[in-house]
What does this fold into?
Amino acid sequence: MKHIQSKINILVLSFITAVLMFTSCGDDLEGTFLINDEASVFKTDTTIYSFQMIDSHGITDEFYQSNIWYSTHNYMSGWGDEAWYESYGTAYESALNNYFFMIVLRGDIDYSNMEIEWNQTDRINYRFGEQYLDLNGSAGLIILTYDTLTVNEILYHDIMEINLMGSADEIGANTPVKTWISGSTGLIMFERKDGIISKRVQ
It folds into this structure.
């Protein structure tokens, strides 16, 4: 039994050592990789610590940067000076309605993708280049991209609209059926199942 336990300990130690050798964090990594140009447009500005949304009834909710469930980060891994994986994410939660909203971009040598999560319940995954989109592993959703959109008299650029109307019965009660994000600004508008729309206020 001690011999088996010893082998297990050696395997665990070897794995940890390998991870430490192959992984590093920081800004000193060089190389060609990572989140591609198309996806990088949607890197939310991490200096935006809070913003307000106002809904169809005139009720204002404050969204603020959250590190409770998921940390805002820019993580890079690589071998030596050659980087081969990047993860960039921001997370916000609301003060009034207990929304939790997260955007994460990931890139490696194969492809770049965006993950959007609402309320720790529903996860939307979009793969750039392939125009692949799925919700909780089920494909067949609609995504639209366009140059600009005006919300509350503010012109936003680099718009992505995610439409889950066709999957409304499969998502949580507080997961919006439509979500709009704008480039480095992040979340600018969303529509709930009951038709109430919340729009960003600058």
Notes: Confidence is low (pLDDT under 50) at residues 1-26.
